Amino acid sequence: MMEKVRLGIIGLGAQGGNYTRFISEGKVKNIVIGGFCDTDPDKRKAYTEKYPDIPFYDNYTDLLNSGNVDAIVTTVPHYLHPKIGIAALERNIHTLVEKPAGVYTKQVNELNAFAESKPELTFAVFFNQRTNPLYQKVKELIDDGEIGDIRRTNWIITAWWRPQGYYDQSEWRATWEGEGGGVLVNQAPHQLDLLQWIAGMPKKVYSVVKYGYQRDIAVEDDVTVVLDYGNGATGVFITATHDVLGTNRFEILGDKGKIIVDDSKKITIKRLHNPESEMSNTMSWADIKKLTGGGDMSQIYSEEVLEFKSVWGKQHIAILENFAGNILDGTELVAPGSDGIHGVALANAIHLSSWLGKEVELPIDEDVFLAELNKKIQEEKRALVEK
Fold it and tell me: Ranges for the Gfo/Idh/MocA-like oxidoreductase N-terminal domain (predicted)?
């Protein structure tokens, strides 16, 4: 039996470098590095000097065929995640894809379908925020019915300030052809996943998206979305990269209370003593005036505040260990690879609604989305030529 998983790290940018450091420093249980892969000659030079005993490959096919890896993680541009994932699974190599699982649902569905044909292999997606105790607690509260049926969700997540210099680092960044979008595919995929993981997928979305609003880029840097969950519940999701002051506040309103998450550090739980509908039917206007006029609100709800501390990197390590655990002993996956489709589907729907100027239903028409995306890519190419 395998004692430790030999992991191939494909792509040695920021995330690939972080995973290399975590594993090489012994912070990740049951994983060793079996090989590196990157197309950058400078990365080859740096990594072969620092890790002379670990093979380095210029292309992922050579790494996959080397026999030196049992599993891989794809820390590459988003378009490549499904392609490399399928190539690994074809060779019976366990696969962990970075978020997002792809740029459009058609390619992610192809990856998921192929993974289903290889049930003996571990297939996961790097949703490290699912290991965050704070969001695990929020999901537990919702699943346990602590605030009853959800009526509304509101998430303002604008704590992604990125100056123009960030976008100017490389030609592929913040482009339709290179990255497949802006804040929705780069910064906010974790929140899109958490939103649907905790509250469920909406049935319809209507979005107002600004492209190159405050930055010299072709893709989105400001997003406002109205969510329709199909059962009367609604939501709003707002994200941007131009708010230097930034806000991160997630509210979930239920018929029996409210959950408020501030800065991914604090949960405030307000539990109604009686469901709101019952209060509405039994309380007189005089009773309400007493409360709103400075009365004792503890008569109608209790409040609990939970504080959380987050150690950077701990959640990434947890996903890597969970991935290895599933390979070695069948530990249940925190983020099965098949779950990667949901955030991509939501991002695609948000983009498509803004492109068509109307509300769209989920699941969207994949062919319509891809045609519109290709239009954006062609427009982008023409603009570059004109420059």
Answer: 6-120
